[in-house]
Amino acid sequence: QQHQQQQQYPHPHHPTQREQGARPPPMPPPQPAPPAFRSVWEDNDDDDRAADLAAARDAERKKREARAAALHADSTAPARPLSKKEKKAQAKEKQKQKQQQKRKMLGDTSHEVFQESRRQERASRFQTSNKRTKSYTVSNEDAEDIDWATYTIKGTSTSLTKEFFRLTAAPDPATVRPEHILVKALQHVKNVWRDKRDYRWTWSQLKAIRQDLVVQCVRNQLTVEVYETHARIALENKDIGEFNMCQTQLMSLYEDVPGAVVEFTAYRVLYAIYTDNLVDITALYSDLSDSPLRTEPEIEHAFQLYSAHNQRNFHRFFQLYLDTPNMGMHLLDVFLDRERKQFFLTMLKGFRPTLPIEFVENELCLGEEEHGLQRFLTENLAVMTADGQAVDCKATWAALAGAE
């Protein structure tokens, strides 16, 4: 029976079927899937999404209508003020129109002719006369930032004294003293200063001598002597601004003319301590590292002072202060009270409960000043003990803190 069934319904790939060319029976068509089950909540979600989409379309339409209304309002509104860029473009357009009108006036519209006329106009505008300018303004009171090589004059005045005034016009040779008169004038100023000690008059005379040297372009030994003299007198009178001006000029003069290089290099180190300028002191130390000036006693002493100041070694600083050479002590006196106060605060922290006033006087080098100790203690709100021989450290510290 099984064999009969195989003969009646052979396999599609049976050799008999392939040989006879028979085709396999067609596959039955796929049956449609049953509809999926949808809940009431899913139907509500579809409705919400459709509502949101409609609302978004309405909002976009309203925005487009608002933009169109705004553009229409701008077109009917009065013109707004032009910006800088628009004004520049408008000015450029006007200039272009003027150039076109000028081409027509020349009688030739060719661009080459017009460019040639423009070049001639520029050349005529920048032509300079060989005559010397007779009036100008001087920014520096010594006029040391002006290139006087083009205005060099030869003075004819024979007066030994002359008040200093700022230059507002070209110097008159009749009021400028020549070099041989300036030598005598400098000596006269030194003698008067030695006798009368009138700094205001001396300052004016030395400034006038410096001005006469500058306008005559004199840079020699006399110039160095004038600036060195003025710097020393300014130090003696604690005029640090004038001293710094002279010191700056001397650093330039020493490149060509010999002078008291060691003395004023030491002053330069002390001035850097006064201004607390680490950049200048580092540059100066680097410049002098390979120079024979580095071993000079004055410069070595100045660097020792800087080292003590930098390390806050106040005891060492005031000991070196007493041995300062030349006029360096006058420069240190300018900021000595500042260092004394810092040292006094340090002693208040280290000495408890009392600080002997004799120790304060010796450490702060106040013995040589008349009433120096009393002045210093009063200025720094020192509270004395009952016997008056010591400072109450705690009470003094509280008084200083309350004053701040």
Topology:
Layout: H1 2-8, H2 15-20, H3 40-76, H4 84-106, H5 111-125, H6 179-196, H7 199-215, H8 221-236, H9 240-253, H10 261-275, H11 278-288, H12 297-310, H13 314-322, H14 328-350, E1 354-356, H15 357-363, H16 372-379, E2 390-392, H17 393-403
Antiparallel strand pairs: 1-2
Helix pairs in contact: 6-7, 7-8, 8-9, 9-10, 10-12, 10-14, 12-13, 13-14
pLDDT averaged over residues: 80
The low-pLDDT segments are 128-144
Supply Rg: 48 Å
Percent range of helical residues: 55-70%
Note the main sheet: 2 strands, antiparallel
What's the N-to-C terminus distance?
A: 125 Å
Order of helices and strands: HHHHHHHHHHHHHHEHHEH
Q: In total, how many beta strands?
A: 2
> How many H/I helices?
17
**Percentage of residues in strands:** under 5%
Question: What coarse outline follows from CA principal-axis ratios?
Answer: flat
Briefly note the structural class of the backbone. mainly alpha
Strand line-up across the major sheet: 1-2
